[in-house]
């Protein structure tokens, strides 16, 4: 694929991102930034490295032109912007680690891609014994977390596409009773593509007691009448991710489940409302958790309230106790509290939200109630 999964980002935007990266490097005392696997590379230059044994590495010196070290046979995949970076294709008989070390030269304070494979990092550490190392996200994380207008539009489009699949679920257009979780997961995946996603990243379907396992892998369990079906699905559309969780009930809802869901629904709404620019990320978590704690289900809410989202499903900033980062305009993240009663049932409710100067803006508008689906 050329470019970042079909998202043509203007050259001027990339130049501006590079300038902000350099400013962050200078502020943190980083002499060279090394990008490989992960979303930092496509965010900066529009190219996604192949996750294979051959090294792809963009070397961004603080004081010189960036160079993309790339396997010769993959060079044609690069939509090369010579104004932004140089290309250094390497042949099968060359050593890409030595080439990378040569481009780094005498620079010794290095930041390397969080997802770069250990085999390359260890090789570089051998070549550059006096270098000190940090992770690239220390430089890029805060920059990528604050989305620009085009990125927010892309998140909104992906969210609307996921909403259309949720609406089909609510309308009973996705048969549930008598099918396995895996079958429903495949059905949801097909619909995500039909609604415009380029890739499906996951489609969790968890029935009954399985809904109490937050990252349940959909399997052969057959969905029955009169139980919870938790669905959590998302994909990538024009380079940006969707992620939504909705629960339905295959028949009339027993009083206990209605009560637990009511608590969760209120907690999720409070978490969304807490997304005010200037307040801390942990305040979003606290707002949701307070309501679940007060209802006596605190021990059943076993994960943080949310994660940042953008080119990756999970990225900065995280909505978790201890994260005092202030919310800034353009921060995009999930609000997804859950209540999990092991061996019995579970609920989670998730929307993507963007912090704006006029308050939190939801990327999802699908119904939030526990909808009864008789299909
Ligand atoms: Zn998750
Ligand atoms: Zn999710
Ligand atoms: Zn999520």
How do you describe this structure in short?
With about 375 residues, the chain is α+β, with helices and mostly antiparallel strands.
Core attributes:
375 residues, alpha+beta, five-stranded mixed sheet, 18 strands, 32% helix, elongated, disordered N terminus, binds zinc ion
What do these coordinates show?
- This protein has nine helices and 18 strands.
- Helix 1 (11-28) packs across helix 5 (137-145), helix 3 (96-104) packs across helix 4 and helix 8 runs antiparallel to helix 9 (281-294).
- The longest helix is centred in the middle third of the chain and has 22 residues, at 149-170.
- A six-stranded mixed beta sheet has the order 4-3-2-1-5-6.
- Helices cover 32% and strands 23% of the residues.
- Strand 2 and strand 3 (67-71) form a beta hairpin.
- Residues 232, 234, 243, 245, 336, 350 line the site of one zinc ion (ZN).
Biggest sheet architecture: 6 strands, mixed
Helix content: 25-40%
Strand order of the largest sheet: 4-3-2-1-5-6
Which outline best applies? elongated
Ligands bound here?
zinc ion
Beta-strand portion reads 15-25%
| Number of DSSP-assigned strands | 18
SSE order and pairing:
Elements: H1 11-28, E1 32-35, H2 40-45, E2 57-61, E3 67-71, E4 86-90, H3 96-104, E5 109-112, H4 118-127, E6 132-135, H5 137-145, H6 149-170, H7 181-194, E7 199-207, E8 228-237, E9 240-241, E10 244-249, H8 255-273, H9 281-294, E11 306-308, E12 315-319, E13 332-335, E14 338-341, E15 345-348, E16 351-356, E17 359-362, E18 371-372
Parallel strand pairs: 1-5, 3-4, 5-6, 10-18
Antiparallel strand pairs: 1-2, 2-3, 7-8, 8-9, 8-10, 11-12, 13-16, 14-15, 16-17
Helix pairs in contact: 1-5, 3-4, 8-9
The protein binds zinc ion (3 copies).
The site of one zinc ion has 6 residues, from strand 8.
């Amino acid at each position: 694929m050329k470019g970042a999964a079909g998202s043509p980002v203007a050259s001027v935007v990339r130049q501006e991102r590079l300038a902000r990266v350099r400013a962050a490097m200078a502020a943190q005392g980083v002499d060279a930034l090394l990008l490989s696997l992960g979303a930092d590379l496509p965010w900066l230059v529009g190219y996604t490295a192949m996750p294979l044994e051959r090294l792809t590495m963009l070397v961004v010196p603080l004081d010189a032109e960036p160079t993309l070290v790339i396997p010769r046979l993959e060079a044609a995949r690069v939509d090369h912007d010579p104004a932004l970076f140089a290309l250094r294709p390497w042949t099968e008989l060359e050593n890409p680690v030595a080439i990378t070390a040569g481009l780094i030269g005498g620079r010794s304070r290095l930041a390397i891609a969080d997802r770069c494979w250990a085999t390359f990092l260890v090789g570089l550490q051998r070549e550059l014994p006096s270098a000190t190392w940090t992770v690239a996200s220390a430089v890029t994380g805060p920059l990528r977390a604050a989305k620009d207008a085009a990125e927010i539009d892309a998140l909104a489009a992906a969210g609307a596409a996921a909403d259309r699949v949720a609406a089909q679920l609510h309308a009973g257009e996705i048969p549930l009773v008598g099918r396995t979780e895996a079958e429903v997961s495949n059905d949801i995946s097909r619909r995500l593509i039909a609604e415009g996603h380029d890739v499906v990243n996951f489609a969790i379907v968890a029935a009954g007691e399985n809904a109490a396992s937050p990252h349940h892998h959909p399997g052969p369990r057959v969905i029955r009448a009169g139980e919870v079906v938790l669905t959590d699905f998302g994909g990538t559309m024009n380079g940006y991710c969707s992620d939504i969780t909705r629960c339905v009930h295959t028949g009339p809802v027993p009083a206990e489940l209605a009560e637990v869901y009511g608590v969760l629904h209120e907690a999720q709404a409070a978490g969304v409302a807490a997304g005010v620019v200037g307040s801390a990320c942990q305040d979003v978590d606290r707002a949701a958790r307070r309501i679940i704690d007060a209802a006596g289900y605190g021990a059943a809410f076993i994960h943080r309230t949310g994660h940042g989202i953008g080119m990756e499903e999970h990225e900065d900033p995280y909505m978790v106790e201890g994260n005092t980062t202030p919310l800034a305009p353009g921060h995009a993240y999930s609000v997804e509290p859950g209540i999990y009663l092991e061996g019995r049932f579970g609920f989670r409710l998730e929307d993507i939200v963007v912090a704006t100067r006029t308050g939190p803006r939801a990327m999802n508008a699908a119904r939030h109630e526990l909808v009864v689906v008789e299909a």
